[in-house]
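Q: How would the structure tokens look for this protein?
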Amino acid sequence: MQREKNQSRASFLQLTSELGYDGGASFSHDGTKIVFRASRPTTPAEISKYEKLLSYNLVDPTEMELYVMNVDGSSLRRVTFLGGANWSPTFLPGDKRILFASNFNSSLLGSFNLYA
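A: Here is the predicted structure in token form.
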């Protein structure tokens, strides 16, 4: 983890550093966890595709899984292994389950459903 300062001198804690896209984060109700979506390219072909798109300031949103970590960035763990695009994660009251949108079980392009 690394602290960086912006122009206003506010301090930020970098929570992730893996190759890939991280976004759509939200806090648990008790403020101890963060859930977010991420792509994690691993094969040479996936990495090449990711880096090429990134050179155009783009990411491919079709393969996103959900991850949970402590608010300090520790104890990162992947919580979905569904394939497809898993989006908009948020903790349900009680912080035991996560509500999210996904197209993993759909044969229709652009069709998303909610899961918990």
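The chain has a mean pLDDT of 91.

The chain has one domain: 2-115.

Upvote if useful.
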